[in-house]
Amino acid sequence: MRLSFICMAGGIALLTGCQSMDSEQVKHTVTAPLVTPPVVPEAPLPAPIIITDVWERIRMNMQMPIPDKKLVNQYRDWYIRHPEHLARVSERAEPFMYLIVEELEKRNMPVELALLPIVESAFDPFAYSHGSASGLWQFTSPMARHFGLEMNWWYDGRRDVPAATIAALDMLQYLHGKTNGNWLYAIAAYNTGEGRVLNAVKHNQRKGKATDFWSLDLPRETERYVPQLLALADVIKNADKYGITLAPIANKPAVEVIDVGSQIDLSFAADLADMPLSSLHKLNPGYNRWSTSPDGPHKLVVPVDKAHGFKLALADTDSSERLHWLRYKIKSGDSLGLIANKYHTTIDVIRSVNNIEGNTIAAGKHLLIPVAAKDPELYSLSSDQRLARKQGVKRADYKIDYQVKSGDSLWKIAKANNVTVAKLASWNGMAPKDPLKVGQKLVIWTNKVAQNQTQSSVMRTVNYKVRSGDSLARIADKFNVTVADLLRWNGLDSKKYLQPGQMLKLYVDVTKMSV
Question: Would residue 355 be called left, alpha or beta, if left means φ above 0 and alpha means ψ between -120 and 50 degrees?
Fold first, then answer.
């Protein structure tokens, strides 16, 4: 008991001592002078990198290694020696490159793929290859349809840049998956097909050989296709080093895709957007004719700075005003096909507008026919006008106008006129394997015409000096050419007057001149 008391007393004393010590420490702390620690300024945050040029955005995100290979080096040297090629490409790419890069980054795909349209088509949406591939991404018809692109008389989705870009990246993603995640394989397969690439890999595996892209036995074109892309990527990435100057492309949307909801004449749409018809059609190269397709798509690409005004004007316009209508009185001997051909439309459109089933029409009755609001020649990027320009380019002294007959082939026609199939196809905007249609009109150029050939033209270049009182229409009529031809050949503006003494260049058939 005593021990317990002593312990208790000692414990109380100890606790009392602790409290006294704490009190002294508190007093000491309060009375001690305060020491303010030195203020260390915070390090400024690094300024965010603002990329204003799409080319710079591409450079910063490139990741594909560039191997030291003979073909890569050859193509690199070619691009460096031809800076004007990349300058032209950069100008063509300006409206669409941002859109393509955005889509690639959204899918986490290599940004180098944005350069594929340069290899494929030099960024020309109207490019058409010997293998019947078309558009910026050079789709063949079967592949285009497989990846969701529409093609008909009115519209070719292969040339619709936003639509074709989605299809091309879908295809590349598919090929990447089919080739076990190897991007070089996938790019090669885009050119030649997945089967050839995978078979080449299996062949090397059986032989115990290396299976990297550079070791594969592939078609000659494909063996050059991948090195060309890699060389181009290297030149773009190191443009300053190689002395290449690319016109900057703003790192922001340049165009907007607007669904107008129904068929619309392109010239009417251009007026609503307050822009030239040729400029609108250039952004919408998928449309073959003077309007969007009756059954769609009805999407139009317009510059961003025109989009708001275009949408307001469109909303303030009745849908019936979007097309120009002709009331046509059926004549004896008419057929839907003849009428459709005459007014640059299709039988299906005439049937649909007039609620006609079958092909029976009656003389004396009337048809409503949608027609171009302006002269068809002013739709300079339509399929018909592009073909007319191509066929009108002088290739030799004589031009033969030929109409395809039953049983004809390009080979037969070429042989009969002593020209090559490749040239004949090229003169007529075709690929050598494209089929012919009865009634199709072809041009054949030759320096010597057979005596029994009566459909020949003698083509000459004429330099004409404008006289007082001349007009474009008067000169066109005199030389049996079109006003559109005169404007195109001489880079003229239809709104500006000709000046006496001004020199014009014309390409004319001297057998048809009315001078």
Answer: left
Residues 140, 128 contacting (CB under 8 angstroms): no
Give the global pTM: 0.75
- And the tokens for 83? 């800076």
Rounded CA gap, 198 and 180, in Å? 10
* CA of residue 416 relative to chain centroid, distance: 37
Residue with tokens 């594909």: 64
Q: What is the pLDDT along the chain (515 residues), one digit of tens a residue?
A: 433 433 334 443 333 343 333 444 444 444 455 566 676 667 676 767 788 999 999 999 999 999 999 999 999 999 999 999 999 999 999 999 999 999 999 999 999 999 999 999 999 999 988 778 999 999 999 999 999 999 988 999 999 999 999 999 999 999 999 999 999 999 999 999 999 999 999 999 999 999 999 999 999 999 999 999 999 999 999 999 999 999 999 999 999 999 999 999 999 999 999 999 999 999 999 999 999 998 889 999 999 999 999 999 999 998 888 988 889 999 999 999 899 888 878 888 899 889 898 888 999 999 999 888 888 778 888 888 888 888 888 888 888 888 899 889 999 999 988 899 999 999 999 988 888 988 888 999 988 655 444 445 556 677 788 888 888 888 888 887 888 778 877 877 766 778 888 888 887 765 555 54
Give the Cα separation of 299 and 288 in Å (integer): 14
Residues 97 and 114: their CA atoms lie apart, in Å, by 7
Backbone angles phi, psi at 509, to 5 degrees: -90, 105
SS3 state at 211? coil
In what helix (H) or strand (E) does residue 113 lie, and over which residues does it extend?
Answer: none
Peptide bond into 297 cis (omega under 30): yes
Give the SS3 label for residue 334. coil
For residue 366, count other CB atoms closer than 10 A to its CB. 11
Cα separation values, 373 from 234, 326, 388, Å: 48, 10, 20
DSSP letter at 155 equals B
Pick the catalytic residue from 24, 56, 112, 120.
120
Q: How many CB atoms lie within 10 A of CB 147?
A: 19
Q: Return the number of other C-beta atoms located less than 10 Å from residue 87's C-beta.
A: 13
Q: How far is CA 11 from CA 1, 5, 22, 65, 493, in A?
A: 15, 10, 17, 78, 110
Q: Is 42 a catalytic residue?
A: no
